[in-house]
Write the structure tokens for this entry.
Amino acid sequence: MSRRFITLSAPIDVPGTLFGVRRGQRDPSCRFRADGIWRASRSPAGPSTVQLVVSGASVEATAWGEGAEAALDAVPDLIGVHDDLAGFEPGVHPMVARLWRDHGDLRVPRSGAVAEALVSSVLEQRVTNYEARRAQSQLTARWGEPAPGPIDLMLPPDPEVLAGLAYYDLHVMGVEKKRADTVRRVAANARRLDALAHLPPAEAHERLLQMPGIGAWTAAEVALVALGDPDAVPVGDVHIPSDVTYALLGEAVDDDDAMLEALEPFVGHRGRVVRLIGAGGIRAPRRGPRYAPRDIRRA
């Protein structure tokens, strides 16, 4: 077990910042509890579990496992300490100014776990949240391992194991061939993909888009949690365009181009604005059933 204290130069909403790193409330590898945020992950240094406890202007980070020291090294990036706010001007729109006043401690995380985030996002392509979370839980239960440390987290499956799965292994979990092939392709290239975290976010984001099966929505979702890209916009989401245009224009327009136009004053920080709108609970009026197909995302 290893422990470090990270002093914060400005307040950070750590649970809010890590909201996208956790894949749903039942994520077997990440848990928000009264005694802190717990996250199990893999790195080239080995598996690890990290516990984060916020106390005033500092974060106490405790880690277990072979990769404990590497995991502690990554904590400042993970919680957004190095998130660069240069060029962000919330005052150009009154709604964004209000959201920033209320949620200015929200940061864009940089987990560096690109392959892990990609697998989760690929499982979310073109299905409901329920189906995606079920597939991820089953995948982790079947091929993951117990994480180091004192609580019952599970490590995400080893990429080498995922790369060697047959299509049928994923099919029985409700993952059709296109997503199954993409999951296995991501796993087979995990080391190269994780290396993207060392590139500038915009360049790494573009590299993601070059991989077959990875579209604009998936690349943006990964960029917002693994690459620390504040400009990543999840184009193709079924709710976000309406929510963003409703917040910025006062009228819900279910169109990606309209959303991007509304976000134009914030280029460089468009993803940050999308996250602020979500944190502020601003939702366009919903029409039709809440269940699929309205919850389905694109690639």
